[in-house]
Amino acid sequence: MAKLTFLGATGEVTGSRYLIEPDNSTLLLECGLLQGGHDADERNRAPLSDLARRVDAVVLSHAHLDHCGLLPRLIRAGYRGPIHCTPATAELLEIMLRDAAFVMERELEAENAWREKRRKSPLEPLFDLDDVIATLDRCEPLAYGEPRRITSDATIVFRDAGHILGSAIVEFNLQSAGRRRRLVFSGDLGNPTSALMNAPQRVHNADAVLLESTYGDRDHRPLDETIEELAGILETASDDGGNVLIPAFAVGRTQALLYHLALLYYDNRLPQQRIFLDAPMGIEVSELYARLYRQLNESDLRTLREAASDDYTQWLPPLRITRTPEESMQINRLSGGAIIIAGSGMCEGGRILHHLRYNVGRRNCHLIISGFQASGTRGRQLVDGADEITLFGEALPVRATVHTLGGLSAHAGQSELVGWAAAFEDRPVFYLVHGERAKQEALQSALEEQIDADVRIPRMGDSVEI
To answer: Whole-angstrom Cα distance, residue 85 to residue 312?
Structure first.
């Protein structure tokens, strides 16, 4: 029997990694970065040399760092095989991984300066730009719906997961002991109401399914209610004269926010006259979305075209792009009344930290959290009602009003996860991954009760036969 081993994202959302072993080959599905938690850096630094030697091919569902962020480290450890992904994922990887290497180098300089003063050994980077370039050279893009034999005993097909540009559900057809076994990985399944994305495709046959469970315990608020809440927050912030800070993930969330802000603008419901996109990677990704617009949801694009009266150059007139650090610093010298969209989405790095430093202690500031916040992250602290946060070594009081907009999530909620799982015509075994334990248990109960599914929750290092 083919063997599946869980090497990450078990009982937690990030750090995706799975080993698949049919008859004569070894496949690595995902190689993601751990994000949040006190031991994340130490775990990310674990050696990958044994894995690099064993693996014949890597398969990647999409370009978020918790799925792909350790690929350059795998290359550094000696992996020289192919990396299979969709064409859009390959383009996003270049943006994501180059930025990650740059940020890591900058942060490590500061960390090692601190360590040198205390006579501690310097830390080596997880990877560098040369490793990123070598990673990109290994990518072999594959379009949705086109089967590809990646080893003598394994074939893959990508289906649209509807999560971000290029995101994929992965179907594996494996030969093992003279039998064909089918393994399906959901990847991150999209929220069908997410702006610009198509609904996740349904798959009907599998022996085993790896199913994400990020929001396995609940459904998202209806999108129309969420947009109404967003409009209300923006109106209140305008009356208060404060800035609106939106920490946003560069891929997916930023583009969805710009879409909804544009529709509010053309509906005369956007009081702010200055909107700053202050995220170099978010800017680059948004430009890629614009270039690959044919892969986006046509109905959403039509709605935006009609709202903008087909004026393609002015979809969001108040938007100002700030590419350089100097332009970014100028924002905080202005009076209030602006919307500032900046990375990172979990407030763990990037330019949002500087905007928090200037604004989080102000009672007229409104902070909008619009995405999942992993345990241990600064964003999670804010969502959980922290009275103060530490920024650049300084404890700052939190006086800003913190809002959570769950309806903008790019992940499927519980009902969508159950509905997607119900499409399988045979009776596969479902293994729940990419979720905190309580959320996995809630989804397990829902799947068992609603579709009589065989559902299991693996632990780190578990191996199962398919």
So the answer is: 31
Which pLDDT score is estimated for 314?
64
pTM equals 0.91
Give CA–CA dist 33/155, Å, rounded.
26
Averaged over successive runs of 10 residues, the pLDDT of the chain (466 residues) comes to: 95 96 96 87 94 98 96 98 98 95 84 84 91 98 98 98 98 92 97 95 98 96 94 96 93 93 95 94 94 95 85 76 93 89 87 94 95 84 94 93 89 97 96 96 98 98 96
* pLDDT given for residue 291 in this prediction: 94
Closest C-alpha to 212, from 230, 221, 200, 225: 200
Q: Which domains does the chain have, with CATH numbers?
A: 3-218+410-465 (3.60.15.10), 223-408 (3.40.50.10890)
| Those residues with Cβ within 8 angstroms of residue 465's Cβ, 6 or more apart along the chain or in another chain | 1, 2, 3, 4
Q: How far apart are CA 195 and CA 299, in angstroms?
A: 10
Note the pLDDT of residue 7.
Answer: 98
Pairwise CA distance, residues 291 & 182, whole Å: 35
Residue 13's CB: how many other CB atoms inside 10 A? 26
Residue type, 455: V
Side chain identity, residue 183: L
Determine the Cα angle at 138 with ends 135 and 141, to 5°. 115
- Token duo for residue 459: 């632990």
44 alpha-carbon distance from chain centroid: 17
Strand order in the sheet with 27-29: 139-141, 83-85, 57-59, 27-29, 18-21, 3-6, 463-465
